[in-house]
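Methods — Computational structure assignment.
A single polypeptide chain was analysed. Its primary sequence is given first, followed by the predicted tertiary structure written as structure tokens.
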Amino acid sequence: MKKKTVLSMAGFLLLSSLVSAQYKKPNRIFKDKQMDLQFSLGLAPTFLTDGGKQSVPPLSLSGEMMFNDFLSAGLSFAHSATFSKEEIVADGRLARWKNNYFEAGARFAAHVTRFDNMDIYGGFSVAYCHSLVKATQDGMEEMSRHMGIKPSSGKIVPGGILGFRYAISKKIVLMSEVGAGVSLFKLGVGYRVK
């Protein structure tokens, strides 16, 4: 799965650079009253340290509005699904769980937009994170309770973000972001709505 993801992103970046060569570079596209939609793929999932296997990679969709040339606010939604590694439980059976993880939140950022076609930003986010965990084998409900695994749990999580966007046209940007949430590192594409 990792190789496919890396190859897909490499192909996407190569295609984007070829497309960008055909466009005249815009000047100062990150500015007051601008609205953007961004779609990104997480390359470092939050649950990677648990030794699990992804069934749905971390996917994020966010919308953002610039209040002026330097400040923005937005909303984001993210989802991933991960299978835990198999483990032997007390009765000697192999057990495995699937975690469907959802995240919805607000983002606030300060931007450095004085460079043509580039935006460097940093800020914070507040998100509600919700996990739906279910055993992949039947009859594991009692064992899950005994192990302290809740079928449904959620909490509000504050986080920080640091990102970079590069405009390849007046409407399309490539982006990367580091921060807490569904993935520690994301790559994606954005589209200017207004």
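Note: The longest strand covers residues 118-135.
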